[in-house]
Design a protein that fits this description.
- By secondary structure, the protein is of the alpha+beta class.
- Helix 1 packs antiparallel against helix 3 and helix 2 crosses helix 5.
- It is globular and about 50 Å long.
Length: 232
């Protein structure tokens, strides 16, 4: 487990929000499947009725590397009202792993680069866990399908980088993330579990509990049990 470093808080001040009590989720037990978070907000704005499942991950975390393909498969089974988003762990404003993630996202290279970064650290040994920004960029530039020019431009866009780092850091702070991987549903519920699969199972239970209510079926003009008159 790791503790978030507060140095990133110098980027922009956090806005304090008043604590709001959350109603228990039907059919679930707080402290077993989930923990309610005060001041919870999603990582990204969503349309009404949509539920965000945010995974806070770190490329250097072996558990995250193992969890990544499980989460990808699980995501495909989610109902239409749920969406998975990834949030890289931010240790400080110069965190090279978080910066490469945000640059790859902006350069539309995550699809090819995200799994390759995990593999390079945990499978092939092409990248050490303490790799610096230059080493990571050199590796990413060799990955087929990455637009190197776009990636470099995104890395050099310092205002966008700092804004992305700040947003992730604030999310991780207000949702009390202490280690990776962590699942946060709707910004308000930290998922509990004693295995990778139990995390996914409990996250799905919370997602289902937050499903938008379906409108009641329209009442028929014909009394129940009485057949309607035949049409001629």
């Amino acid at each position: 487990m790791r503790t978030l470093l507060l140095s990133l808080a110098l980027l922009l001040p956090l806005l304090a929000a008043p604590a709001r009590a959350q109603a228990p989720l039907p059919g679930l037990t707080e402290g077993v499947q989930y923990r309610t978070l005060d001041n919870g907000q999603p990582y990204q704005p969503l349309p009404p009725g949509m539920v965000e499942v945010a995974e806070v991950f770190a490329y250097t975390c072996p558990h995250c590397a193992h969890f990544a393909p499980m989460l990808e498969a699980w995501e495909k089974q989610l109902p239409a009202h749920a969406r998975v988003v990834l949030v890289p762990w931010v240790s400080d404003r110069n965190d090279p792993w978080a910066r490469i993630y945000f640059a790859a996202r902006k350069a539309r290279a995550l699809g090819v680069l995200h799994p390759r970064l995990f593999s390079a650290i945990h499978d092939t040994g092409e990248l050490p866990r303490n790799a610096d920004a230059a080493q990571i960029l050199a590796f990413a530039s060799r990955v087929k399908g990455v637009d190197v020019a776009a990636l470099k431009a995104a890395l050099q866009d310092e205002p966008a980088q700092l804004e992305a780092l700040r947003t992730a850091f604030e999310f991780e702070r207000r949702t009390e993330v202490e280690g990776t991987p962590t699942l946060i549903v709707a910004g308000r519920y930290q998922i509990l579990g004693n295995s990778y699969q139990s995390l996914l199972d409990n996250a799905r239970r919370v997602v289902d509990a937050l499903a938008p209510a379906r409108p009641a079926p329209a009442r028929s003009a014909t009394p129940a049990g009485k057949p309607s008159s035949p049409r001629h």
